[in-house]
Amino acid sequence: MKQKLARRGVAVALALVLGVSFGAAAAQTPKKGGTLVYASVSGPGTLDPYMASSVVELEVINNIFEGLVTLDNVNATKPMLASKATASADFKTYSFELRKGVKFHNGQEMTSADVKASFERYKRISPNAKNLDAVDHFDTPDPYSFVIVLKEPNVVLLDVIKSPIYPLMILPASQKDKPARDIEVIGTGPYKLGEWVKDSHLVITRFDDYTADTSSPGRDGYAGRKTVYLDAVRYRFMPEITTRIAALQNGEAQLISSVPPDLSAKITERKDLAIREVFPTLGSYIIVNSQKGLTANVLIRQAIAAAINVDEIIEGAGGLNKRNPWMSFPGTPYFLGDTAPTPWYDIKNPAKAKELLKQAGYKGEKIIIETNSNYQWMRDTMLIVAEQLKAAGMTVDVQVTDWTTNASHMQQGTGDWNLSTTAFGPDHILGPQQWRPMLYTFPHITGNDIIDKAYAEFFQGQTLEARRASWLTIQKEVLGGGYLVKIADTGRLSGYSKSLQGQNDYAGILQLWDLWLN
Amino acid sequence: MPVILIISILAFLLLSLLPGDPAMIIAGDQASPAAIEQVRRQLGLDRSFLEQLGIWLFNLARGNFGSSLILNQSVLSAVGERLPVTLSLAALSIGFTIPVGVFLGSLAAYFRRTWIDSAVMTVALLGVSIPAFWIAILGVILFSVQLGWVPSSGFAPISQGVGRWFASMALPALILSLFQIGFLARMTRSAMLDVLSQDYIRTARAKGLSEWRTVGKHALRNALILIITATGILLSAAIGGSVIIEQVFALPGIGRMVVQAIMARDYPLVQGTMLILGFTFVMINLIVDILYTLADPRVRHD
């Protein structure tokens, strides 16, 4: 009897083990079909990739369009619609071989004429077009070859054209003369546009004639072999987080965006739902207006940096944050990690701040902090910063406005402010060339010879090591000179139903290939 | 007509006072100063203030409300697409409000200084005091997540079936009507109290009319002027209140569009919508005036 029970026990245990492993195997087997409902904060304003910079736009665009090159799983450059991309020895000519047989959603095959027309339209209308200023002309020797000839060497051209914002996607040549924001939405991507009702919802459907990149074994960041299992994805625009969570809880949506950490328990308390951490997506900074009154003085800027306690800010402002003293994300080519000291970061030394203020001849004049009522983390950050500056003996005036005004002031240097805050995204992935316009805009750096010279060297640097050295000089000057004060790298949380399978750890903007619904 | 002209100038002036540069916002975060300048020229924002006002009024006179910068469509078509949502919401909430509000208000007046009066007035006070966004969120959690009676959000047009349309609008309209019911019940109670103490009500009772006829016909008819006035105000308030409700319930209506347009400094869209809403409010007032004449013959004779 005992033996029988024991045998039965073994059998049950075996069955359980097998059952679990079979279950796991079943869960891992992709299943075709179904419509994924994705609840996001708001809808896109435009699906013209050359004009798109906001996440809600790129979340759709990345699934409909593709570029010649793009970012792989470690944010390095990888060909997508090109099969090969090469630069000449003098970095003045870039040649692209195109993949053959790639179809647009209208059924036409993509050729070099489409690529040329797309680059020309990009040069004409994109706010990012300055990155192609050095282009002399484009050549199309045959339908599957495309050549960019530059007026002067540019070692980072491929990094520029893989930009995930204002992405240089390939459109049919018929769109060449279309004005900004007014294209027919036709790409080569794995999904095509279905219905779009502004402010309500948008549907994309599987493009059955999609030509996957078979040279890759599987997905790879924005690149690689993309397989679409879902029939369609329905984006629903729900600005209110409680409504998004409710939609996930009652099964109306299987994926929702932007879950604040303090509400994540509402999702994790359910066994059928889970939270995905997407990290890092942004880097947060205190912006110091270097053209305005007190903060035009480097000693005052350094005093402000010396008073900052990063951990207090991370704890007080909430969200998903990790410390990082650099202006590039870990794992990207320009991340300098432990290769150099970072004395500008998290100084938290009020005594040193007071000393610097004394040297600057500071006499209690008002330092104006501008923040906004739209983003709570920004407001909380600046309230904590205000207290830290007060503790170091500074007189501070916090002014709250709306984000649009705040952003406009920061970007144009208008308004009456010394300090503000914001977060930067793709610059941390793409590196120094993407940062350059930001540095000359937000803290309004002008006439800094060290930065100008380091950038000149950067664009001449033929090896990554040389360019990393220039980037170190730039960061030492920007962060050490108190133009920007780095706070942390930040991420975001999304909520999903466990019936949605196939998500990976890559922190890119929403990718809907290789996902399936069980 | 003068009212519309004043509204149109106000709509232009108010927006011009807002800080923030639409050209910069349209061009995007990473745009160069040259790109921003190009957008500014395209939008005509480089012209003088008076020139811009003149162009705005001239276009209006030709029925041209302008084109939205963010939606890439004309203001009239943008408003036209969203009008059914906001009107559905306002009409349904008024549909809930009038019978319930008038009934509760009359009930409280008839049973004044009893527990019924206290109960109705407490509910009415809660209705006008509780913030709509909070009660809306509680409503979603209760009716959508816990009970599963209605979807959490979204709009189903009536072309997809009356049942689906009603399911999508019932909860938002109910939440929107809570404030209005509270307001209307208090107004009705006050008007009815006044009327119920009049001599002709005593006469009606003395000549043996039933209580139902006395209150339902004689008293309520006399309180109607105040109730119509309140309803006119409520309809305007419902359109205004739809901003919050549309945001919480993700309804693609005019309120939500205006909020986004203000954030994006989409001047033509905000100005055009303000003008159209201003015109709607003027029309509501006109209809209220016409209803007065139907409800009260004395207004006609004057």
UniProtKB/TrEMBL annotation, chain A:
Q: Which PROSITE patterns match?
A: SBP_BACTERIAL_5 (PS01040)
Domain of life according to the entry: Bacteria
Q: Which Pfam families match?
A: SBP_bac_5
| Residues spanning the signal sequence | 1-26
> Which family is this protein grouped under?
Belongs to the bacterial solute-binding protein 5 family.
Q: Which GO terms describe its molecular function?
A: peptide transmembrane transporter activity
Sorted alphabetically, which Gene3D superfamilies does this protein's record hold?
Answer: Dipeptide-binding Protein, Domain 3, Periplasmic binding protein-like II
Q: Where is the Solute-binding protein family domain?
A: 78-434
Which BP terms in the Gene Ontology apply to this protein? peptide transport
Taxonomic classification: Bacteria, Pseudomonadati, Pseudomonadota, Alphaproteobacteria, Hyphomicrobiales
UniProt entry tagged with the keyword RNA-binding: no
Q: Where in the cell is it found?
A: Periplasm
What is the protein's species of origin?
Bradyrhizobium rifense
Keyword annotations from UniProtKB, A to Z: Signal
The protein's name in its UniProt record: ABC transporter substrate-binding protein
Iron is among the record's keywords: no
Q: Which InterPro entries match?
A: SBP_5, SBP_5_CS, SBP_5_dom
